[in-house]
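Morning. Coffee machine broken again, so started the prediction first thing and wrote up yesterday's gels while waiting. Chain of 91 residues, entered below exactly as on the submission form.
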Amino acid sequence: MNKTELISIVSENAGLSRKDTERMLGAAIDAITAALVKGEKVQLSGFGTFEAKDRKARIGRNPHTKQPIEIPATRIPAFSPSKALKDAVGK
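Came back before lunch.
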């Protein structure tokens, strides 16, 4: 499923126009992104938790030359599904 398909399904289920649904979905994604940039967690009951995690610097290898490469530390977004979501997908 892509974003356009998601917008279609949500607009049908919620009884909203596609344009309103697209704005709502965009606003939700923007709000989640802004919270992660600030270092906050976003918990959606029954769905899961979004958070930003720190990844340590490490040494990798160039597969062509086998030379060591330093991979810098970075922050990455992470998602942890709720038990309800895990159970629903597992059935």
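The helical segments are 3-14, 18-37, 83-90. Going to sketch it on the whiteboard this afternoon.
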